[in-house]
Design a protein that fits this description.
With 288 residues, the protein is mainly β. The protein is built from three helices and 26 strands. The strands form six sheets. It has a seven-stranded antiparallel beta sheet, with no helix packed on it. It has a seven-stranded antiparallel beta sheet with strand order 2-3-4-11-6-9-12.
Length: 288
C-alpha cells in the first residue's frame, strides 16, 4: 500500500501576468527529486473574471529543457509559440507543450471567454525531460475533451479521465516522452478507490475540491498535495464526499536538475547556453 511521505499546502497566491492568480504548490527548487519527472505545479484556484476587451494573461517568454502541461477546468486558455504550435482549449481540455531545445510562447485567456467573463480554474505542470531529449525539436499537443477516455466508477460514484498513461484499459491521448500517469478524477459522493500503479514510480494526489483520507488516516484537504512513497503498487484512498482530484505518477529520471527561471537543464553550463541562445534569437521570435 502506498504510504504518505509528506503533504504540501501553499495558501499564498501570486499573479502570473495579469490573467493567472496561482498558488505554487511545488517547484524544481524544492521537491523535484521526490516527485520526478514533475518539476512544478501552479494551481489557479476558482476565480471569477468579469467581461473585458483586454488580453489578460502572460506575454512572450522562453522555455528550454522540459514540457508544460496546462489543464483547464473552467475558462479558456489561448496558446501561441515560436515553433508554430498553438490553439485554444476550454473546460476539461489540455495543452501539452514540449519546449525541449527552446522556444518562446505566450498564454492568454481565450478571446470568447474574455468577452463573456466567468469562472476560471486551471493547473499548469512542468514535466522534466531526460538529458537525451532536452534538445529535441519543440512540439505541441492540443488535447480536446472528446479524445480523453473515461473510466466510470461503480454505482455512479464518478469518473476518472485518463489524460496520460493507462487505467483499467483506458489509455490517455497524451504522448509522453517518459512513462507518466495523469488522471483527472471526479467523485460525486463519498467513495473508496483502489488501483494498481507501477512499482518504483513516484505518486502524488492533489485535491482541487473536497477532501480524502489515506489508509493510514491522514486527511488531504482542498488545495493540498499528498506525496506518496514510490515503493508498493497499491494506491488507495477514500473521499469524504464529492471531490475533484488530480493524480500524478511517473518514472523518476534520477538525473541532476539545474534550473534557473524558465530553463531546466542538467548542468550550469547548459543554463548559461540557454540564456545565450535565447538572447541571440535561436529560440525563435514572434513576427507580430
Amino acid at each position: 500500500m502506498k504510504k504518505l511521505r509528506f503533504k504540501r499546502h501553499n495558501p499564498r497566491t501570486h499573479w502570473v501576468g495579469d490573467g493567472f492568480p496561482v498558488r505554487s504548490v511545488f517547484s524544481y527548487s524544492d521537491i523535484a527529486s521526490e516527485i520526478s519527472p514533475f518539476l512544478m505545479m501552479d494551481y489557479a484556484s476558482p476565480t471569477h473574471f468579469p467581461p473585458t476587451t483586454q488580453r489578460k494573461g502572460v506575454g512572450e517568454h522562453p522555455h528550454r529543457g522540459f514540457e508544460t502541461v496546462t489543464i483547464v477546468y473552467e475558462g479558456e486558455v489561448e496558446h501561441r509559440d515560436s515553433a508554430g504550435g498553438g490553439g485554444t482549449i476550454g473546460p476539461d481540455e489540455v495543452q501539452w507543450m514540449t519546449a525541449a531545445s527552446g522556444l518562446v510562447h505566450e498564454e492568454f485567456h481565450g478571446r470568447e471567454y474574455a468577452r463573456l467573463g466567468g469562472p476560471f480554474e486551471m493547473i499548469q505542470l512542468w514535466v522534466n525531460l531526460p538529458a537525451r531529449l532536452k534538445m529535441i525539436p519543440p512540439a505541441y499537443q492540443g488535447i480536446t475533451r472528446d479524445t480523453i477516455p473515461s473510466v466510470q466508477l461503480p454505482e455512479n460514484r464518478g469518473q476518472i479521465r485518463v489524460i496520460a498513461g493507462e487505467l483499467e484499459g483506458a489509455k490517455g491521448p497524451a504522448f509522453t516522452r517518459t512513462p507518466i500517469n495523469l488522471w483527472d478524477m471526479r467523485f460525486t459522493q463519498g467513495s473508496g478507490f483502489t488501483c494498481k500503479v507501477p512499482e518504483g514510480h513516484t505518486a502524488s494526489i492533489f485535491v482541487l475540491s473536497g477532501a480524502i483520507r489515506l489508509p493510514d488516516g491522514n486527511r488531504i484537504i482542498e488545495a493540498e498535495l499528498a506525496v506518496l512513497d514510490s515503493s508498493g503498487t497499491d494506491l488507495s484512498f477514500e473521499t469524504e464526499g464529492p471531490a475533484k482530484i488530480l493524480f500524478l505518477g511517473g518514472e523518476p529520471l534520477n538525473e541532476p536538475i539545474i534550473g534557473y527561471g524558465p530553463f531546466v537543464m542538467n548542468t550550469p553550463e547548459e543554463i548559461q547556453q540557454a540564456f545565450i541562445d535565447y538572447r541571440s534569437g535561436k529560440m525563435g521570435r514572434f513576427e507580430s
